[in-house]
């Protein structure tokens, strides 16, 4: 495995660990400033909207797993296809489980770090 592939896998692991801890600042640091997220039923949105939505979740606990199914390096760009299974549990509420795939483009920034630049999230609610 190349150093870049290892670094990209570390981005995913760090994202998941930070999400479990509710560490929004770490998650935001893993994104480019011009990141674009696409999820079913909503217009594409960027970093500020992601941060606002995350803050609105309050004390919701996030848990889950991510498996990189495919990783391809393309110079200073790369894509990964992930299989994600996650559960969000709001305080005093019922857990909501979602699972499915994401297609994520990452870009190697001027500081040499890989960051998430585009993300198409196809997770579906599971009963």
Automatic annotation (TrEMBL):
Q: Which Pfam families match?
A: DUF4440 (PF14534)
Please give the InterPro entries that the UniProt record associates with this protein: DUF4440 (IPR027843), NTF2-like_dom_sf (IPR032710), Steroid_delta5-4_isomerase (IPR011944)
Q: Which residues form the DUF4440 domain?
A: 8-116
Q: Which Gene3D superfamilies does the record cross-reference, listed alphabetically?
A: 3.10.450.50
Domain of life of the organism in this record? Answer: Bacteria
This chain belongs to the protein called SgcJ/EcaC family oxidoreductase
Q: What organism does this protein naturally occur in?
A: Mesorhizobium argentiipisi
